[in-house]
Amino acid sequence: MGSRGQPEESRAAILRAAANEFAEHGIAGARTDSIAREARVNKALLYYYFEDKETLYGAVLDEAFSGLKNSVFQVLNSDLPAREKILAYAGAYFDFIAANQVYPRLMQREMMRAREGQSSHVDKIVKTYIQPIFLRVSEVLREGIAEGQFRPVNPAHFVQSIVAMIVFYFSSAPTMQKIVGFNPLTPERVAERRASVLDFISAALFLPQPTSSQGARS
Length: 218
Known about the structure:
Blueprint: H1 7-29, H2 32-39, H3 43-49, H4 53-76, H5 82-99, H6 103-115, H7 122-146, H8 155-171, H9 173-180, H10 187-205, H11 212-217
């Protein structure tokens, strides 16, 4: 069982177990007994790290969104050209979600709570995580448009479309399996989806580049 003598390991185990429980049952249906049991800690230790279930839920959301932000900003803050950067961003986003497949369901539940006016976390999530990512990706799009690399797309729509292509694939996997007749979440299918997302972005966003002979004639 986890102990106070292993604070980082115990806290991480609680957050992993809580993410699964909240994604499956929502905050109202989640049970701290189940979280403690899955994390292999006693309930007293869970409350030692987290004051109550709402505090634990907020910590799970912070863990999810901060991990995503850190992953994509490694790319967004690089010196890559706009074309390479937008694909690297989409790839980093995809890889993070593929490695943390419980997060799309968790995020969906929180968006629903926010829509119903029941979320005390959504303002922090937007200001700390989602908005900075959106603004930085929008800058990349505007840079590519100004350089003649990208079609003149509206970032407010295009950034959402990138996210939707990635997140929906994982959140809809059980339904898609019934439609397509195979498991969308095998490593091979996930790799196919990643390549398809990047190909779709390229086709929808990139302008043809002049060849060297065209450049010489102009």
